[in-house]
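Lecture notes, continued. The same structure-token format from the folding unit now serves as the input rather than the output. Read the line below as a description of shape only.
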């Protein structure tokens, strides 16, 4: 089975991101495929490379990054949601004349077309957060 996972909750404001991460790991462990992981609304905060949680907490940015690298997954963040929340890669930071970007690979900024494409190509869409 092929899954699209949509994460709408921020990394430390709800259980949405952590639950989605656990779900993604379970899907892969059971031999299923993840078509794409799409971060939307406050979920885009997971892509902020400047997050620095205490050492006794899960670093969700790093957890998502490692999961993507180890399993060749797409981590797509919604451009409109990201810009509203100050989540920028270097290209967007330059475009808006900001001093720096806080998003790096494997996270990529893209539009809602990636979400629509995911719903078309995946067998199931799982949404975490509201």
């Amino acid at each position: 089975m092929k899954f699209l996972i949509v994460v709408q909750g921020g990394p430390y404001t709800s259980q949405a991101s952590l639950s989605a991460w656990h779900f993604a790991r379970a899907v892969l462990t059971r031999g299923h495929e993840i078509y794409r992981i799409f971060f939307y609304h406050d979920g885009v905060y997971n892509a902020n490379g400047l997050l620095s949680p205490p050492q006794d907490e899960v670093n969700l940015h790093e957890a998502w990054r490692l999961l993507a690298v180890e399993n060749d997954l797409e981590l797509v963040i919604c451009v409109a949601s990201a810009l509203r929340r100050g989540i920028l890669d270097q290209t967007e930071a330059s475009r808006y004349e900001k001093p720096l970007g806080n998003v790096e690979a494997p996270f990529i900024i893209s539009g809602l077309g990636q979400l629509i494409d995911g719903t078309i190509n995946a067998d199931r869409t799982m949404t975490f957060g509201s």
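Point for the exam: Residues 5 and 126 are 5 Å apart (CA to CA).
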